[in-house]
Structures are given as structure tokens and as C-alpha cells.
Amino acid sequence: MSHEHVSYLELLARGAATEAYDRPVLLARASGAGPEVLAELEEAKLLALRVRAELEGRRRREAELSALFATAHDLAGLRDLDAVLRAIVQRARSLLGTEVAYLSLNDQSAGDTYMRVTEGSVSARFQQLRLGMGEGLGGLVAQTARPYVTDDYFDDARFQHTRTIDTAVRDEGLVAILGVPLSLGSQVIGVLFAADRRARVFEREQVALLGSFAAHAAVAIDTANLLAETRSALAELERANDIIREHSGVIERASEVHDRLSELVLHGGGVHDVADAVSEVLGGTVEFTEADAGSVRRGEGHAVREGDDWVAAVSAGGETLGALVLHGRPDLDPVDQRTLERAALVTSLLLLARRSAGEAEQRVRGELLDDLLDAPDRDRRLLRERAVRLRTDSDAPHVVLAARIDRPDGTADTDTGRRESADRRRLGAAASHLAATRHGLASARDGGTVLLLPLGPGESAADLARQTARHLGGTLREPVTVGASAPVRAPLDHPDQVAVAYEEARRCLDALRLLHRSGEGAAAEDLGFLGLLLADSRDIDGFVDRTVGQVVAYDRRRGTDLVRTLDAYFASGMSPARTKDELHVHVNTVAQRLERVGRLLGPDWQSPARALEIQLALRLHALAAAVPGK
After folding, report:
1. Where are the beta strands (DSSP E) in 374-416?
2. Contact (CB, 8 A) for 392 and 439
3. Dihedral of CA 226/232/236/241: which sign?
4. What pLDDT is recorded for position 99?
């Protein structure tokens, strides 16, 4: 065997490119070989190239068969249709050597075609493309159920071009496109594509290979559809079995809920106990709500469906007291509906019983407070015994609070008519509940409500007034204004002070309304100088301390002269220049002292209202300092 023949074998062995097979001939010609040698080399080269092409074809067919085998293996263990289709498209792109491959499916319900899987795509518009039936190259493939190929998409007039498709194809930069049908029987359900961003010719073997992948894809889709139908059928069977089991337990559940509700009533259970028992029996969540009467009366005594919930009115004597709402059971059978209705009836009986007991206690609490206000000379021992029965701590400091509903439109509960009566009842009920909770007393009075509540640890009358306004306003969803008195120590030992405190609370309430602070709670100490006038105690020291106490304390600790500076500042018409002349200091010293005052009293200390109170407090402080023993 000649040296040149060995060269060709080496080229075949290392899989050299086609151009490398010209090298032995060129070398021989350059070395001066004769015509016979050159002819023999040319013949050997052609033979080597045929062998190379045969080997290349075998390798390609081996790779194709391997990919098709892997695809069949994927189908045998089908779990995720998207994963199988993605693998098919990836293998098609790799074996055909295209830049892009993609698969579209027909949407029968929408009447169009959409991209299911793309590989190698870079355009979001192309990946989200939807096109009408029969449009584009895919439409031609779907109509004829045959493969179609175009060397140059935009110059091909065989299929229907649309602006939407052409824009998406142009965004992706595609030129040459091959499409083969995905068929189930005689029906085309989609198209598998391979495409390049340059002009190219797809060989017949490549068309056949893509067709094989399309057949596998169609089988995968058909298999997935069959699996889905099988699962759906199994689910239907399971639902049927569940219904049978559920109905078999309906009578047992009805009997159980009857026994449990009867036991609750006999043992003094509450509304929430009923809701918990029915929740457990019905397998959902039942809650009692003070619902809008109109929304629950529609059932006329029956449970009605509201969205995914069931609502049963809780009513008595034509009055709607609320509703039981069942969550988590949108599909409720008639027997369970009647169970919910029976629970609503039991709830109404419990509410009526609780209302009767509450009204009786409310009357007793109201009568005791009325006696303290109207007949303070009654036997104190009897008053204390009545307070003990109501679990009232008569030895603790108490505050008298006057409360009224104030509406945003300016209509108060003192107006005559139906709304006045309804507001009084609602406010009285809310106040009585609060009094019972805090071990105090409450009574309707003077178009509003009066409360006598104990002070908690570290709590002031102003704190209690604000808490009461927030609580009653939140309960009634209306602005409730509350005025508070100064604390009354051991009110049952000093019943005459209760009426005095009530008058102070009413004056505070009226002041809040005049100051346009409806819906708030406050005591005299919150109202500055006005509070000093309203309060019976005339707590001048407290007023001075609340107003300028921080400045006085600062002078005492640091040996500064802020109080005298303030006096001079106000005496000079709030002019720093005249103040510095009065004090014989530099104007910068005045500015520094006033800045320190602002940090102690707050940024609004020079506002007209604050300035007036500060000047008054300074005068009272000066008077107190001038009085011996102060």
C-alpha cells in the first residue's frame, strides 16, 4: 500500500474535513509526480470521500435512531407532557442543525393556534405568538396535512401572510422554515417546525426525520389526553363514592347535632359554643355575625348561599339579631342546610335569654347610679351591698364620664324623632356592656349616657375618657364624644361628690363640642385654661405644671433663667430685640434661650392659643412664688 493511500486512511480515521482530502494530491503534484500517480491519487481521493460520506451518513442515522429511541423511552415513562415535548423539540433542533425549533398546537375552543414549546428563540413576541387557523406556513401544513418547506419565508407566496405572523418572524430573524404536521388519525392538531436565520435547503432525509419527531409528539399528546381522561374518570368515581359515604352519614350527623345543641342549651352554652359545635359537625367554619338585616332576611327562615358561604338568619319576633355564616362548605346538602338553620334557631333563643339577663343587669346598674346622682343621702350600707352584688370595686378611685353620639353632619342624639330613640338605646347598651366589663355603672341621662368607671393602675381621667370614646365609637361605628370628671375617691363613701363630678363631666363634654372636637374623649386637664375654669377642683398648680412645668424644672436643675426670659419676651410683644434690652443680654443669648424653650414646650408654643395659656401659667407661677409657704 502506497504512502498516499495511508494518508487517506489517516484522514478517514480522524474524521478530517472534506478540504483535507485534496492535500495528498497537491503534495504529489508539487513533488513532480507523474500523471499515472496523480490519476491514482485522484481515484483514491474519490473513494475515500465516498467512504467518508457513508460513515458520516451512518453516524447521522445512528444519532437520529438514538434520539428517536430516547424519545420513545420518554413516551413510555410519560409523566410531564411539557417535558417530553420540550425534549422532542430540542432533539429536532440539534439533529437538523437549525438555529430554532418550535411546536405549535391548535386551540379548538379559541379557534386559533398558539406556541407550545420553543427552542433557540430570542423574541418574546415570537414565543407568545397566536395565529388564526389557516394562516402562515403552519396553516398550509395543517390544511394539507403534508410537510412544507420554504427557503425564504418572506418571498414565498404559497401561504397566507399576515402582519402579526410576519412581524413575529421578522423579530426572530427567521428565513428558512420547515414545518411538518402533528396528526392524530386524520386530524392535524399542530405543527412541528425547524427554522434557520439564513437561507438553506432542507434535505428529504431531514424532512422525514422531523416527521418522525412530529409523530412522537402527537403520540405524547394523545397519551397525555388519555391519561387526563382516565384521571378525570377516576376522580368522578371517587366523588361518587364520597357522595355515597357522605349520605350514609347524614342521618347520623343530624342526630349528633340535635343532641349537642340540646346539651348546650341545657347547660347554659353561649353563641360561640353553638358555632363551634356546628363547625365540627358540618366540617366547615361557622361564625356568628351581626350582619345587615336586609342581607339575611332574604332566606325567610332558610339558609341561603352567598358566594361560597351559607348564611342563616338569627331572628326572633321579626327582629334580625344577626346571622350564622358557614365558610368552607360551598356544596351543602339539604340535610346540612337544615342543621345550620336549626343552629340559627338555637342561637336566637340564647341571644334572647342573654338579652333579658343583660337588660335586667343594665337596669340594676342604672338604678344604682341614678340613686348616687339623685339621692346621695340614701343609706350608704345599702348602696355598698348593691354595689357588691354587681361586683363593683367601690373603694377604688372612680371617674364620672358623660357620653353622647355626635354625627359628622352635626346631628346629635339630642334631636327628636326615631333616630334619637334608636341612638340612645344603642349608646345605652354599649355603655352598659362596657360598665359591666370594667366593673362600673352606667345609666341613660340627659339625652346621652353617664358612666361611673374605676381607674386602672397608672391611668388618668383623661386616659379613661379617650379609651371610652374609642371603645364606644368603635362599637357603634359612630363618633362618640366623652367628657370626664376629676377622680372621685371611694364614691360610695362620698356619694354627694358623684353628682358634682357628673356636672363637671357634662361641662367638659359641652366644651369639646364647642371646640369642634366631637368624637374625642377628654378631661378638664386636657383643655388648658378652659379646663381650669370648667373643673370644680380649680387645680391651679396642676395647670401651671402641665403648661410650663418643664421650663420651671429646667431652671431649677440647671440654674438657668428661662422663666424670666419668657416673661420678658411676652412683655416685649414677643420681640427678641426688645427682650435683650430688657434682660441686658446679647440678642443671640435670647435666641438660644427661646430655642431651648421650644425644645421643652414643643414647636407650637408661640401659637396664639398656646402663648395665651403660657402667659397665664407664668402669672400664676409668679403669684404662687410670692405667696408665703408656696
Report:
1. 398-405
2. yes
3. positive
4. 94
d(CA 182, CA 225): 15
Phi first, then psi, for residue 538 (nearest 5°) are 50, 55
Do residues 91 and 67 lie in contact, with contact meaning Cβ atoms separated by under 8 Å?
yes
φ/ψ of residue 229, rounded to 5: -65, -40
Handedness of CA 270, 274, 280, 281 (dihedral sign): positive
For the chain, the average pLDDT equals 77
Beta bridge partners, 480, equal 405
Strand pairing class (480-484; 521-523) = parallel
Q: In angstroms, rounded to a whole number, what is the distance separating the alpha carbons of residues 38 and 43?
A: 9
Tell me which of 326 and 273 has the higher pLDDT: 326
Q: What are 315's strand-pairing partners?
A: 320
CB atoms within 10 A of CB 457: 4
CA 601 to chain centre: 41
Close Cβ partners of 52 (under 8 Å, ≥ 6 residues apart)? 11, 12, 18, 21
Q: Long-range contact list for 160-167, CB < 8 A, 24+ apart? A: 160/134, 160/135, 160/136, 161/136, 162/131, 162/132, 162/135, 162/136, 164/129, 164/131, 165/129, 165/131, 165/135, 165/136, 167/125
* Residues with Cβ within 8 Å of residue 184, at least 6 apart in sequence: 218, 221, 222
Q: State pTM to two decimals.
A: 0.38
CA angle at residue 617 from 614 to 622, to 5 degrees? 125
| pLDDT tens string 492-515 | 777 778 888 888 888 777 777 766
Which amino acid, residue 481? T
Which among 360, 362, 357 has a CA at the least distance from the CA of 442? 362
Q: In what order do the strands lie in the sheet with 309-316?
A: 285-289, 319-327, 309-316, 304-306
Both ends of the chain: CA-CA distance in Å?
134
Instruction: Name the band, by pLDDT with cuts 50, 70 and 90, for residue 366.
Output: low
Is residue 500 within 8 Å of residue 474, measured between CB atoms? Answer: no
Amino acid identity of residue 191, one-letter, is V
Of the candidates 227, 155, 219, the one whose C-alpha atom is nearest the C-alpha of residue 189 is 219
